[in-house]
Amino acid sequence: MPDFGRMLRRLRQERGWTQTELARRVHVGQSALSRYESGRSQPSPDVVEALAEVLGDALRTAAPAMALNQVDGGAGDGLAAIELARRVKASDVGDSTLQQLEEGFDQMATAYSSAAPPLLLPQVTSHLGYVFELLDGPKLSLSAHRRLVVAGAWYSLLAATLHIDLNQHGAATARLRAAASLARHAGHDEIRAWAAETEAWRQLTAGQLRRAYDLTEAARYLAPVGSSIHVQATAQQGRVLARLGDSERTYHAVDSVNSLAADLPALDADEREHHYRYDGTKRCAYTATTLSWLGDPAAAGHAEHVIDQLTPKASESGRWPRRLASAYLDLALVQVKTGEVDSAADSALIAMRTGSVVPSNFWRAAEVVRAVEARRMPQARELQAAYREMTQS
Q1: Is 76 exposed, middle or buried (0-12, 13-18, 19+ CB in 10 A)?
Q2: How large is the angle between the packed helices 19-26 and 30-38, nearest 10 degrees?
Q3: Rounded-to-integer distance, Cα 217 and Cα 110, Å
């Protein structure tokens, strides 16, 4: 462990970062980072991975053997899942504690639509750590044991989603493996399907479209019929098909989503979206994105409808700022494809200046910036400056 601490300190100092600066970048406490550097404490495998994401692969070579084995995922199990599975013992945790963990997850999954990922991620991981502690505690009943494992799977899944938003792909992979492994342990196909769908999104953003398609197929196969993930996996598959340019199957997927979601209620004005519950309001937003990627001018109408729905009045705060920013990006992209490049530049500027475009979606804004640059539009310089400001903040 001292070797790891010395290397961690050296790599940090080579970059001119204080402990506080590095802690901010990897979303851990400064006091914890100090303990890692001094050798007084051992980081968890996902923290090792997060540190390696910003300091380089060399850090993994000095990591404790346990962490390396888990990062490598030798048997295909996720990092957190391996650690949890090792600790799972039989077992008595009170119902109120379990209920608070479950309700806490629902609150965080609801906060996801508006909270900044760097602020939400530590809350999610601290709750996941508490699940570790409970599984290390006194004997649990069979029912409590399963509920803890399911809670660990949900928290791992949400943490993975936040890591993807922050472009922390190593940590995201570890968390997704954890969620899938725990879900298998609990016999929870819904979470397994969500893990596959979430990985499909990650592969889509990386341009690995065939892999993304296969993952959406796996998610659809695992998803309980009529569940939110059944609708979401179908919608995700439509987006992948749109990027592949398969218009016939894309339209079929859009029709399927509309049919599957037809009976789902739209949220009331004072309700907020739960990330893992598909609601009727989400349908239009997904249609806008899918059709914009296909280059269908009809996407503009759907995007404008979402913008009209979600733009807050003067006295209100926005319910879903991330979804609103995405709708502006959808509108900008379809405006580029229909030759309305001036309008596209305006729409993209609005999206980028909301402060709600997460790093995993920067590439979508970049598509519009490149299109405006290619046409040598006068707005190109302003758009480039807004993009730099967004990506460097």
Answers
A1: exposed
A2: 110
A3: 26
Question: What's the burial of 246, exposed, middle or buried (CB within 10 Å: 0-12/13-18/19+)?
Answer: middle
User: 180, 192 in Cβ contact below 8 A?
Assistant: yes
Q: Please choose, from the candidates 170, 152, 163, the residue with its C-alpha nearest in 3D space to the C-alpha of residue 48.
A: 170
Query: How many Å apart are CA 322 and CA 319, to the nearest integer?
Result: 9
Closest CA to 367 of 383, 385, 350, 343: 383
Structure tokens at 171: 């940590």
Q: Which two tokens stand for residue 235?
A: 């919608």
Q: Within the chain, how many helices (H) and strands (E) appear?
A: 21, 0
pTM score of the predicted model: 0.73
Residue 121: partners with Cβ closer than 8 Å, 6 or more residues away: 27, 159, 162, 163, 166
Name the DSSP class of 57: T
- Dist CA 65 CA 149 (whole Å): 25
Torsion sign, CA atoms 198, 191, 326, 391: negative
Q: Which amino acid is at 103?
A: E
- Residue 20 CB neighbour total at 10 angstroms: 12
With CA atoms as reference, report the closest residue to 268 among 276, 280, 283, 284. 280
Residue-wise pLDDT for 235-279, tens only, equals 999 999 999 999 999 999 999 998 888 777 666 555 677 899 887
User: 362-374 and 380-392 helices cross at what angle (nearest 10)?
Assistant: 160
Tokens standing for residue 15: 């970059």
End-to-end CA distance of the chain: 34
